[in-house]
Write a structure and sequence with these properties.
This protein is of the alpha/beta class. It has helices at residues 14-33, 38-59, 103-110, 117-127, 133-136, 146-154, 174-190, 200-206, 211-226, 240-243, 248-260, 263-270, 278-288, 297-300, 317-326, 368-378, 387-393, 401-409, 413-425, 430-453, 457-463; strands spanning 73-76, 85-88, 93-94, 113-114, 140-144, 159-165, 194-198, 235-239, 307-313, 336-340. The protein has 3 domains: 14-59, S15/NS1, RNA-binding (Helix Hairpins); 89-346, 3-Layer(aba) Sandwich (Rossmann fold); 368-454, Orthogonal Bundle (Tyrosyl-Transfer RNA Synthetase), CATH 1.10.240.10. Its EC number is 6.1.1.2.
């Protein structure tokens, strides 16, 4: 391409401009490293400055290496049509592909590492346990520094787990269980402390809620989380609205993060605008702080060098990319991460579920009859239009929501493979596949509801009281 500073720049999207600036910067560095002629370097630098000016004019923000505009991920699924691109940020997940987001491209865009067979085998050797089905099936598919966690564990050095929940409604749905099911398994096989953050302050800032209602949702969600079976002696659950005012260590870390992240950076990462309240702008530091053991002096005896492992959906990664960037500058270890795929809505994998749409998912409060009705009526099918066509051509498991849900909740690998083969061949009809899902989810949710009934306000209080856990540091 000719080095015409204005060559079609107006037609480029913010992300395309960002990529052009990045590429041009690399070109300038390569020319300087190769001791190219001065006029050639000068021309490349002029082009770089022009691109940066275009980027600022388009986005309203200065170019910063490694921080795409609004941290909005655009992944082209093999076409140049704008409607065929995936959009992922901490609040929005959209794709036009019925199979869902292209996670391989997301790994490349976010700069994380794929969880491969070697890593899964290493986890199995380290723990002596069969890998969780979420690992076996690629539901947790990406990581940052999990190899370092295993290095430490194999050398008898401890780490801790941190995950969270934004309590935006009283009832959680089955998709909300995914990080907690996996975190419970991690806690059991590694025998480590667990911190669970309830970001009721975030929901107050983003939603039309009072602080009292946000805190009430936090306590109600805590009951669902506790009902997953966490050990009270090894788990601390806290509400931001509650804990922040009681822990000097926690607030000190928030302030340290705040000092080392500029307003421009936080705008670049999260897409905040000048009209956003300052609470939103400062919130990422609050989500970052539990990544550091000194935020919990009562658990870690004031030690600052205990590494953290964060299991979460990959849309939360921007918070922790920021955290990992800040950590060395405030003398803290970088948190490691394990990323999960998104749990699909009943209507299909194009978007995340909405707590405000009761038909977008199966809720933990649903009755057996509601579960059956929702799946039969709303679960997107990969089957054919007629039984004759289905028998002849077979169904598509890649887009069938009932099969997707079974990959999350059906433990038996052989049974899952049998269902896949039978559905793909046309032997198994859509209604029959939905029946298998109904029979899988009904007892699972009924058992959860029974456990939740046993979670009293007093038990919630015990989990949420700052205290020493059953570990020595």
């Amino acid at each position: 391409m000719a080095d015409n500073p204005n060559c079609d720049l107006k037609s480029l999207s913010p992300l395309q401009l960002f990529q052009r600036v990045t590429e041009q910067g690399e070109k300038v560095r390569a020319l300087k490293a190769g001791k190219a002629p001065k006029d050639e370097i000068d021309a490349a630098v002029r082009m770089l400055l022009s691109l940066k000016l275009s980027y600022k004019a388009t986005t309203g923000q200065d170019y910063q290496a490694g921080l795409p505009p609004k941290d909005l991920v655009l992944i082209n699924n093999g076409t140049n049509k704008e409607e065929d691109e995936d959009f992922v940020d901490p609040w929005t997940v959209q794709t036009s592909n019925a199979k869902g987001v292209d996670y391989d491209k997301l790994i490349v865009r976010f700069g994380s590492s794929k969880i491969d067979t070697d890593l899964i085998n290493r986890i199995e050797r380290a723990t002596g346990q069969k890998p969780h089905r979420f690992l076996r099936r690629g539901i947790f598919f990406s990581h940052r520094d999990m190899d370092q966690i295993l290095d430490a564990y194999e050398n008898k050095k401890s780490f801790y787990l941190y995950t969270g929940r934004g309590p935006s409604s009283q009832a959680m749905h089955v998709g909300h269980l995914i990080p907690f099911i996996f975190t419970k398994w991690l806690q059991e096989v590694f025998d480590v402390p667990l911190i669970i953050q309830l970001t009721d302050d975030e929901k107050y800032l983003w939603k039309d809620l009072t602080t009292e209602k946000a805190y009430e949702y936090a306590r109600e969600n805590a009951k669902d989380i506790i009902a997953c079976g966490f050990d009270i002696n090894k788990t601390f659950i806290f509400s931001d609205l509650d804990y922040l005012g009681t822990s000097t260590g926690f607030y000190k870390n928030i302030v340290k993060v705040q000092k080392h992240v500029t307003f421009n950076q936080v705008k670049g990462i999260f897409g905040f605008t000048d009209s956003d309240c300052i609470g939103k702008i400062s919130f990422p530091a609050i989500q970052a702080a539990p990544s550091f053991s000194s935020s919990f002096p009562q658990i870690f005896n004031g030690k600052e060098n205990i590494q953290c492992l964060i299991p979460c959906a990959i849309d939360q990664d921007p918070y922790f990319r920021m955290t990992r960037d800040v950590a060395p500058r405030i003398g803290q270890p970088k948190p490691a991460l394990l990323h999960s795929v998104f749990f699909p809505a009943l209507q299909g994998a194009q978007t995340k579920m909405s707590a405000s749409d009761p038909n977008s998912s199966i809720f933990l409060t649903d009755t057996p009859k509601q579960i059956k009705t929702k799946i039969n009526k709303h679960a997107f099918s990969g089957g054919r239009d007629t039984i004759e066509e289905h028998r002849k051509y077979g169904g598509n498991c890649d887009v069938d929501v009932s099969f997707m849900y079974l990959t999350f909740f059906l433990e038996d690998d052989d049974r899952l493979e049998q269902l896949k083969q039978a559905y793909t061949s046309g032997e198994l009809l859509t209604g029959e596949l939905k029946k298998v899902l109904i029979e899988t989810l009904q007892p699972l949710i009924a058992a959860h509801q029974e456990r939740r009934k046993q979670v009293t306000d007093e038990i919630v209080k015990q989990f949420m009281t700052p205290r020493k856990l059953a570990f020595e540091f």
